[in-house]
């Protein structure tokens, strides 16, 4: 399988300094926030690559860089082998740009309330001079709505239906890749199931590739082939879905799995994780997770761990082997109590 | 600190009793009922989880209990009893007293419960002085103890900090301290962890559970997250389109749902379909309150529906042993077929 998306050494820094005058009066230095830090991954064609992480971990920023809404500070994104920020052939850039579409978390905010659904769906194609005859009607039916809905306005639809309209709009450009940023986080469980099923069906019918962003582990477990776990802008672990869930190797991934509430465990008494995500403007030295990590040693506060391979997983932790051992020991301890 | 006296009395009388509660909102398209005939009890030391989809009426029910309905919404029927005494017919001033003294509140956004202009110490001591018979020095000590209890490190040093100097998780801890410092009998927590990250959510849930048990407080925990319910609640109330459709012990309801809606909801979680390419789904969406179908509000989406379901009256919980508002409930052992 060839990679459709190839992300290398991606870094994005935001200038979050106070305005100049405040800085002078309050004697503040400039402040920079590293939202994404040296992230690399590959997404093979027709696969689903998921990025998970807590809020502020850089998921949306990576998604926006991939679709070209935000430029990277360092590193490259190649799509179909082309680095769009360097490519000089404008026609080629346009074609590849339209191959990559995005759908967002909030189906309310991302649809223009004054436009009819027909205009919303067909606009991207029309602006490129494409044929839009019957396009909206056909796409609406493809996403499980009715062709007659094309004449309506967004407010006439429920949250789940609006997300279907967003999907239809993304499909209008005939994309190969869809970046899905928390596509079901604003939806109720029963509606979430409908939308996820639609996305699975479309993926099969159209041979789509998804970069799927979510903070919900159960959704990611259902949808993804490969999962990348982010913490404070850094990719800390990446593994095929089943490998990751069977044996998480980074202490942060293990903490995340243990903390996520489950519908099949009742009134469990676990020690909740310690601490909170630190200030991204002054991230900890070395491994960003070290102040909260139960396995941290002196080296962890000094040296940022490189991504390395451990049994089919890429993991950025000095003590991954120890983390795996501890994971199995704790599992064995829990087992007899069942 | 445990309060045996209060708990002993509460064992006989629930801390909170809601009886046939109806909330109405007049709208141009007619009157809607975001809470329609809801009844439940919460006992001392017990956490009742209230779940349901967005717009099901969870917050409206909680707000009615604390007398904080935004007009034109109003209580149009039923009774609310706190420790056996009616509070739904109290004057506004009396109700405000009862609310401050006996009911603590925790909302999704900690900033709505905190005054940005006052230090957290001032907010805590003010509440303590208003409701407990203690002087300033004692109130100050109690405020520090309350912050220590919710896990604020170096509480004595941080008591003069302002809300914005805390992280989101720490703020929610302060709100919990504030909700509990006047030693209430009942705490209403409306989506207290929805804005927080999973790791912090786990901390806040563990904290709520511990305090509820230690202090014998009755808790109404409103959330749309079944995982949070499973983790924290003793019993669960499932709401749909303004009605209570299922009520029972949390493990019973989540693993052996009797109402087709609860069963469908549990089956449509990704965890239930693990290893399957498609998820089970309930067709359609919850109807708007001004467009409810006649009969059972779930009937258009229900695979068990028959003629009886499509005509009034809508079933109440008594239709199935006080457990499920359904004419044709699932049999007790039928579920767990989800996987
Ligand atoms: N335009 C911006 N200017 C300044 N900082 C930004 C900007 N966009 C994002 N950030 C910061 O970058 C970090 C990563 O943000 P991002 O939105 O990518 O996170 P996320 O993982 O998508 O989080 P969430 O789960 O909350 O959506 C955050 O600390 C955020 O505050
Ligand atoms: N002014 C109003 N006019 C008409 N309907 C209203 C009005 N205010 C609220 N409602 C309706 O009351 C219902 C109950 O809302 P409530 O806030 O209790 O829902 P909820 O279960 O807490 O949902 P969420 O999970 O979104 O917080 C909703 O369906 C809402 O549409
Ligand atoms: S009463 Fe009828 S329609 Fe309603 S849930 Fe039960 S079977 Fe379904
Ligand atoms: Mg985001
Ligand atoms: Mg609500």
Automatic annotation (TrEMBL), chain A:
Domain of life, source organism: Bacteria
ABC transporter domain location: 11-257
Keyword list, A-Z: ATP-binding, Nucleotide-binding, Transport
GO molecular function, one term: ATP hydrolysis activity
Matches recorded under NCBIfam families: oligo_HPY
Similarity-based family: Belongs to the ABC transporter superfamily.
PANTHER family given in the database record: D,D-DIPEPTIDE TRANSPORT ATP-BINDING PROTEIN DDPF-RELATED, TRANSPORT ATP-BINDING PROTEIN
Name of the protein described by the UniProt record: ABC transporter ATP-binding protein
Organism: Rhodosalinus halophilus
Main location: membrane
GO BP, sorted A to Z: peptide transport; transmembrane transport
Membrane topology of the entry: Peripheral membrane protein
Family matches, as PROSITE patterns: ABC_TRANSPORTER_1 (PS00211), ABC_TRANSPORTER_2 (PS50893)
InterPro entries, A to Z: AAA+_ATPase (IPR003593), ABC_transp_ATP-bind (IPR050319), ABC_transporter-like_ATP-bd (IPR003439), ABC_transporter-like_CS (IPR017871), Oligopep_ABC_C (IPR013563), P-loop_NTPase (IPR027417)
Subcellular location: Cell inner membrane
Automatic annotation (TrEMBL), chain B:
Start and end residues of each ABC transporter domain: 16-266
Subcellular location: Cell inner membrane
InterPro entries assigned: AAA+_ATPase, ABC_Ni/Peptide_Import, ABC_transporter-like_ATP-bd, ABC_transporter-like_CS, Oligopep_ABC_C, P-loop_NTPase
SUPFAM superfamilies: P-loop containing nucleoside triphosphate hydrolases
Signal peptide range: none
Any one GO molecular-function label of the UniProt entry: ATP hydrolysis activity
BP terms from Gene Ontology: peptide transport; transmembrane transport
Chain ranges passing through the membrane: none
Gene Ontology cellular component terms for the protein in this record: plasma membrane
Keyword line: ATP-binding, Cell membrane, Membrane, Nucleotide-binding, Transport
One Pfam family this sequence matches: ABC_tran
Membrane topology per record: Peripheral membrane protein
Domain of life the protein comes from: Bacteria
Keyword Zinc: no
Coarse class of the protein's main subcellular location: membrane
PANTHER family noted in UniProt: DIPEPTIDE TRANSPORT ATP-BINDING PROTEIN DPPD (PTHR43297:SF2), OLIGOPEPTIDE TRANSPORT ATP-BINDING PROTEIN APPD (PTHR43297)
Family: Belongs to the ABC transporter superfamily.
Protein name listed in UniProt: Methionine ABC transporter ATP-binding protein
Source species: Rhodosalinus halophilus
């Amino acid at each position: 399988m060839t990679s459709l998306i190839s992300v290398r050494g991606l870094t994005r820094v935001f200038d979050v300094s106070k305005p100049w005058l405040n800085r002078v009066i309050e004697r503040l230095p400039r402040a920079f926030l590293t939202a994404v830090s040296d992230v690399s991954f590959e997404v093979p064609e027709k696969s689903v690559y998921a990025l998970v992480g807590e809020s502020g971990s850089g998921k949306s920023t990576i998604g926006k860089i991939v679709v070209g809404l935000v430029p990277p500070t360092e590193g490259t994104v190649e799509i179909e082998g082309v680095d769009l920020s360097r490519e000089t052939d404008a026609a080629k850039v346009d074609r590849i740009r339209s191959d990559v579409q995005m759908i967002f978390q909030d189906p309310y905010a991302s649809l223009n309330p004054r436009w009819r659904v027909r205009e919303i769906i067909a606009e991207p194609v029309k602006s490129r001079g494409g044929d839009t005859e019957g396009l909206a009607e056909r796409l609406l039916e493809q996403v499980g709505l009715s062709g007659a809905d094309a004449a309506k306005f967004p407010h006439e639809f429920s949250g789940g239906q609006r997300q279907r309209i967003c999907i239809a709009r993304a499909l209008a450009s005939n994309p190969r890749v869809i970046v899905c940023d928390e596509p079901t986080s604003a939806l109720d469980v029963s509606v979430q199931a409908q939308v996820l099923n639609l996305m699975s069906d479309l993926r099969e019918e159209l041979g789509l590739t998804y970069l799927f962003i979510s903070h919900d582990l159960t959704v990611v477990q259902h949808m993804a082939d490969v999962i990348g776990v982010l913490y404070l802008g850094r990719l800390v672990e990446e593994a095929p879905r089943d490998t990751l869930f069977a044996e998480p190797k980074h202490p942060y991934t293990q903490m995340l799995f243990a903390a996520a509430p489950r519908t099949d465990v009742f009134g469990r008494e676990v020690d909740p994780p310690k601490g909170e995500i630190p200030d991204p403007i002054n991230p900890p030295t070395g491994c960003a997770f070290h102040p909260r990590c139960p396995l941290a040693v002196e080296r962890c506060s000094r040296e940022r761990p490189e991504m390395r391979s451990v049994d089919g997983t890429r993991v950025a932790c000095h003590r991954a082997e120890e983390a795996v051992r501890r994971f199995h020991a704790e599992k064995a301890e829990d087992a007899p109590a069942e | 600190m445990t309060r045996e006296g209060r708990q002993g009395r509460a064992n006989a009388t629930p801390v909170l009793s809601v009886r046939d509660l109806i909330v109405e909102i007049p709208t141009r398209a007619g009157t809607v009922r975001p809470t329609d005939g809801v009844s439940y009890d919460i006992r001392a030391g017990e956490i009742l989880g209230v779940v349901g989809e967005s717009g099901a009426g969870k917050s409206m029910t909680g707000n009615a209990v604390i007398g904080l309905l935004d007009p034109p919404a109003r209580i149009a029927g039923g009774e609310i009893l706190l420790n056996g005494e009616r509070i739904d017919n109290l004057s506004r001033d009396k109700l405000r007293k009862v609310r401050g003294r006996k009911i603590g509140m925790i909302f999704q956004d900690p900033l709505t419960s905190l005054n940005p202009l006052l230090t957290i110490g001032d907010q805590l001591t003010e509440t303590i002085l208003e409701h407990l018979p203690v002087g300033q020095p004692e109130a100050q000590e109690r405020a520090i103890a309350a912050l220590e209890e919710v896990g604020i490190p170096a509480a004595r040093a941080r008591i003069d900090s302002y809300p914005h100097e805390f992280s989101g998780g720490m703020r929610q801890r302060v709100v919990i301290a504030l909700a509990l410092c006047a030693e209430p009998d009942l705490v209403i927590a409306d989506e207290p962890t929805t804005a927080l990250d999973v790791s912090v959510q786990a901390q806040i849930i563990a904290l709520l559970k511990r305090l509820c048990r230690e202090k014998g407080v009755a808790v109404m925990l409103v959330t749309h997250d079944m995982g949070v319910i499973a983790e924290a609640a003793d019993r669960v109330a499932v709401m749909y389109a303004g009605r209570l459709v299922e009520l029972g012990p949390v493990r019973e309801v989540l693993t052996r749902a009797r109402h087709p809606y609860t069963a469908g909801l549990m089956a449509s979680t990704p965890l239930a379909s693990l290893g399957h390419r498609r998820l089970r789904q309930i067709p359609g969406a919850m109807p708007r309150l001004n467009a409810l179908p006649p009969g059972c509000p779930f009937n258009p989406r229900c695979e068990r529906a028959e003629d009886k379901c499509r005509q009034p009256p809508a079933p109440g919980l008594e239709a199935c042993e006080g457990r499920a508002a359904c004419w044709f409930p699932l049999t007790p052992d039928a579920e767990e077929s989800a996987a």
